[in-house]
Automatic annotation (TrEMBL):
Signal peptide: none annotated. The keyword Transferase applies. It comes from Janibacter alkaliphilus. Keywords: Glycosyltransferase, Transferase. One of its GO terms (molecular function) is glycosyltransferase activity. This is Glycosyltransferase involved in cell wall biosynthesis.
Amino acid sequence: MRRVLHVTDCYSTGVGRAVDTIVGLSPEHEHHLLWAGEDDPAGKGFASTTALPGSSLARLRAVRAAVRATGADIVHAHSSRAGVYARAVPAGAPVVYQPHAYKLLDPRLPRAARTAVAAVERALGGRTDRVVVLSEQEARLAARLSPGAGRTVLPNVPSLASPGVRAPQPDGPRRRRVVMSGRVSPQKDPGWLAETAERLRERDPAVEVRWLGSADDPELTARLERAGVSVSGWLPADALVAELTAAGVYLHSAAYEGFPISVLDAAWCDAPVLAREIPAFAGTGLLTVADPAAAADRVLEVLAGGAVRERALQGARDLLREMNPQVQRQRLAEIYA
């Protein structure tokens, strides 16, 4: 048994669900959480939970204090900022760093910012014992940034495939509705989906487009609404299952990813999946689209049924053969060995 201290400043949505899944799939270890975020960790299997303080300097100190208080054998840092808090000064225990999508993958990151982020990652790489990544693309990047650290590809798994969540129960035929799941934030590129929605509205006004997630960015939310996209706000698991089960197409619009749990949740609900053509999806078999014009074309083809819809379904089903709780449980045993 190991004592694992999870550190994250974004315990919400995808990262929060990923942490919860890790805890649930490795109950033989004792898990503690040092956190900030919007979700509530109560009842999620943690032996203790401690809120991160407000300032960055205080957060550096909080990691060392939490290691001492919990007797942690391993610090598992989730996301880039938590990676700084756990590695900028010696944490007092081996550090496992899981970026959950390197910021360097953002294609819109200015060159100067890209250079600065890479320099910080390389500087902290010497204090990293293992990097946990979500795809082979991230593994190649980790090899350059933290060459002395071990590397493990830990596939994400559907967050909805967990005890207590009602299994998908189709209620009649799927609707002529396109959905995307995630926080309304620049990484998820709501503008890309909004442009797709505008093209769809010109060609078939009966097709609905809906964003499933919290409206974190008011300006981007307004852009979606101007395009006729409804924004659900945060949804509990059962409501998310109902939305994904009823949707005619799941379309993932993000500009960059590690590997999104939301796509796996859509696959688990057996929704036809289309994904924006980004490196995270290379080699997966998902049906991808390059731009909003191509996305609108493919959406209409999927909604029409036939071979394209079957391809979108099969790509999603194939994904779950490699990204499932059994595989993740095996990889976690290696990481915490």
